[in-house]
Fold:
Amino acid sequence: MEKTPHIEVNREGLIAETILLPGDPLRAKFIAETFLENPVRFNAVRNAFGYTGIYKSKKVSVMGTGMGIPSIGIYSYELIHTYGVKNLIRIGSCGSFQADINLYDIIIGMSASTNSNFASQYGLPGTFAPTASWKLLKKAVDIASEKGYPVNIGNILSSDIFYDDNPDVWKKWAKMGVLGVEMEAAALYMNAARAGVNALCILTVSDSLVTHEVTTSEERQTAFTKMMEIALEIA
Ligand code: HPA
Structure:
């Protein structure tokens, strides 16, 4: 079977049509071992661990994408174009830009603004608005409301820069109503849009640019479980 440079799968059909994409490959391993029945590892190239297993009788995959737009750009492209993945759900952490969005709150990226040049490859005569799949977004919102989990839904920023030379530049995005910052969703949404497949990004707030608070890793786990439940139920 055809393989890609960054994902080495040795059996046809080993990657499910729906995949959860955390940034951290060890988080992918943890998710597979904790939430999936009979997880089978399909990839270990560059330690970007990927697994497929069963959740509530449905086949679901989970794979680490690494950090940043180039990295998720590569993995999501190969998953979509070579391995036939149709639903790509990023689960990650973000920094909050808004005073009323606190640590551990959930943000769902309806759209993803970016300072990245990723969209230039399409040669569009204007700017592109990277947007979540309505189908996945609607499901996520329905599941969250059934479970009684509050979620913030709106525009997020996918930034190429974690350590910005201008520490106040985020305030310009905040003034435009952007909810928070992460580093991958815009590329995921663009790859999915270009290929006609579905993508969504669900985030847990791990730090606040407003208050400078940060989470501890155990505290993150609980909030993370809620986000996971939403993502797995979509699948
Ligand atoms: N910036 C960018 N990405 C992030 C952040 C942040 O503050 N927190 C979690 N992911």
Summary: Residues 104 and 219 are 8 Å apart (CA to CA).
